[in-house]
């Protein structure tokens, strides 16, 4: 591929602007730990929402979508589309609760909701487990995507790619803190969107493709277009559609789609000006993430089936790519090599933006756990703000180094995605219920973590060797069902066998976040003078359902129009419009 001086100029300008933003925000970010990790809790919804979208627009996301589409068609995307249910639940139920909690990180929540050694253990363990180990795995999958892009489009070695991508990201992340990340995300979001739409538009004009109508009529592509999978084969529709919609969205834990909110999504909500801005940010994120972005990726993925129908075609076209890095996800980068001068620079800048926006968020989020929930809480409670910012900057660098090393050992983003889902299977329901059910305690969460991890290791490592439970290759989805069932039964048993939290702890939490009182009545009945917050949970669930239909209708309306099916497209658009009016009206009424 011919990358000209113009393309390199565009890329250089992108790097320079990103670095300048980090330098611009360095002084304010370094003034205190709260500024470094939460931007003073004064951020508007639109900046936070765009940042969430930019973060989830990782370079490995179009690779993942391409992998899914090539294997399972458009309908295969329900593996992540189903998480919209989680997202809308966070928007209308949990965003305001998180903002009311006024914690610095979602891990600090543990010592607000629970007490004693169990709460302290949870906070310390998850600070290292999530902030370091789990976070490093996520960043490694992003870095893996960067490696594949660098190898296919620029002919760079994995080490060269990681050095270029990581150094700039670490500099502006460590200097500018969350505010630097947010402002850089805002800039990078528009670059990323322009790149993906521009690439999709140009790919359709390639001689091998001809036009959108030619692409859709192609024999290989025509079988991949359905929104809903084939319901004649349970081994297709159960893992692709039924499992994600019925179980996965509420039962599994995955960064960016945590049941009840959490991770960097919680960090954004906690840094919002108020509850209204927290809700607006998560609403914008879910609309943009699920309805605005997928189709350019899907179009490029479908086009790749025409030009590179098999992995062997990719290997022949790119012989310099290591064998362990070859896969269907490589097809996205392969398609981008056909782009012309100028557009190549924009697309490369957009992919670099996708890598850097995700890495920068995870670096800041992970270091916030290390600093606030481990170092400050357990190592040096008297540490000054200056020292905490310094530790945050050091941990940012170390996290990047660890993730780069792991990226060199990975081969597929989809493999990592499935493993992460398996490890978190069965824990999601706790994160939904702990706000509304007084009986859940610290040992509920500890047992769920332990059981889900052991079960994941059993099904992923031990069972394939000893064959204790027969799981046919075409029914691998049974692993998730078994894992969710075993983990959920396990933590429920532990919950009822252990003592609940003390009343004073429960009441302090209830007064602080004021959730709906339905699940707290047994505690409140012991204190007749305590005010019961009736709340509006029923209305919030209704808005969640409305929001879900709105976004899915917008997503499929676009798809119908692309497919040339105008009447279904207009009907879906009308449903999306009505849903949008209802939701905007409700949001404007908030104080």
From TrEMBL:
Pfam families tied to this protein: SSF
Lineage top rank: taxon: Bacteria
Location, primary (coarse class): membrane
Listed name of the protein: Na+/proline symporter
GO molecular function, one term: D-glucose:sodium symporter activity
Similarity field: Belongs to the sodium:solute symporter (SSF) (TC 2.A.21) family.
Membrane topology, as annotated: Multi-pass membrane protein
Subcellular location(s) of the protein: Membrane
């Amino acid at each position: 591929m011919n990358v000209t001086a113009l393309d390199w100029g565009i890329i250089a300008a992108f790097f320079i602007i990103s670095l300048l933003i980090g330098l611009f925000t360095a002084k304010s970010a370094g003034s205190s730990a709260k500024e470094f990790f939460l931007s003073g809790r004064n951020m508007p919804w639109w900046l936070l929402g765009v940042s969430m979208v930019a973060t989830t627009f990782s370079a490995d996301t179009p690779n993942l979508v391409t992998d899914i589409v090539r294997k399972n068609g458009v309908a295969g995307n329900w593996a992540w589309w189903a998480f919209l249910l989680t997202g809308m639940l966070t928007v209308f139920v949990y965003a305001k609760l998180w903002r009311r909690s006024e914690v610095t990180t979602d891990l600090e929540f543990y010592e607000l909701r629970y007490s004693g050694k169990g709460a302290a253990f949870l906070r310390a363990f998850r600070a290292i487990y999530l902030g370091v180990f789990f976070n490093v795995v996520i960043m490694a999958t992003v870095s893996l995507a960067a490696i594949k892009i660098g190898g296919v489009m620029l002919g760079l070695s994995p080490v060269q790619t990681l050095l270029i991508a990581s150094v700039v990201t670490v500099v502006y992340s460590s200097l500018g803190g969350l505010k630097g990340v947010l402002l850089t995300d805002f800039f990078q979001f528009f670059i990323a969107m322009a790149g993906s739409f521009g690439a999709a538009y140009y790919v359709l004009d390639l001689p091998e493709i001809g036009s959108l109508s030619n692409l859709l009529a192609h024999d290989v592509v025509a079988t991949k277009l359905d929104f809903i999978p084939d319901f004649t084969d349970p081994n297709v529709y159960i893992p692709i559609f039924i499992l994600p919609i019925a179980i996965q969205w509420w039962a599994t834990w995955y960064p960016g789609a945590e049941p009840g909110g959490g991770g960097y999504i919680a960090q954004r909500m906690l840094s919002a000006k108020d509850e209204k801005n927290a809700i607006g940010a998560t609403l914008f994120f879910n609309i943009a993430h699920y309805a605005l972005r997928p189709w350019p990726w899907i179009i490029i993925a479908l086009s790749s089936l025409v030009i590179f129908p098999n992995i062997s075609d990719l290997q022949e076209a790119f012989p310099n790519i290591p064998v362990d890095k070859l896969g269907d996800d490589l097809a996205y980068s392969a398609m981008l090599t056909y782009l012309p001068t100028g557009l190549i620079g924009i697309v490369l800048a957009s992919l670099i933006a996708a890598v850097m926006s995700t890495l920068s968020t995870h670096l800041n989020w992970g270091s916030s756990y290390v600093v606030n929930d481990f170092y400050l809480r357990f190592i040096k409670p008297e540490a000054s703000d200056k020292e905490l910012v310094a530790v945050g900057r050091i941990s940012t660098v170390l996290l990047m180094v660890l993730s780069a090393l792991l990226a060199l050992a990975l081969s597929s983003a989809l493999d990592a995605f499935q493993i992460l889902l398996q490890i978190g299977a069965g824990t999601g329901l706790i994160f939904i219920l702990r706000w509304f059910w007084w009986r859940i305690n610290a040992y509920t969460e500890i047992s769920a973590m332990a059981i889900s991890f052991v079960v994941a290791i059993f099904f992923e490592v031990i069972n394939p060797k000893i064959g204790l439970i027969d799981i046919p290759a075409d029914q691998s989805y049974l692993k998730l069902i078994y894992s969710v069932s075993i983990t959920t039964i396990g933590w429920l048993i532990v919950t009822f066998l252990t003592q609940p939290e003390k009343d004073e702890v429960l009441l302090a939490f209830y007064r602080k976040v004021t959730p709906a009182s339905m699940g707290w009545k047994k505690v409140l009945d012991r204190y007749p003078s305590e005010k019961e917050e009736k709340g509006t949970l029923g209305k919030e669930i209704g808005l969640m359902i409305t929001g879900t239909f709105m976004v899915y209708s917008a997503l499929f309306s676009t798809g119908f129009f692309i497919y040339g099916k105008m009447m279904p497209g207009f009907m879906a658009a009308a449903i999306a419009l009505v849903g949008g009016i209802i939701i905007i009206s409700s949001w404007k009424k908030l104080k």
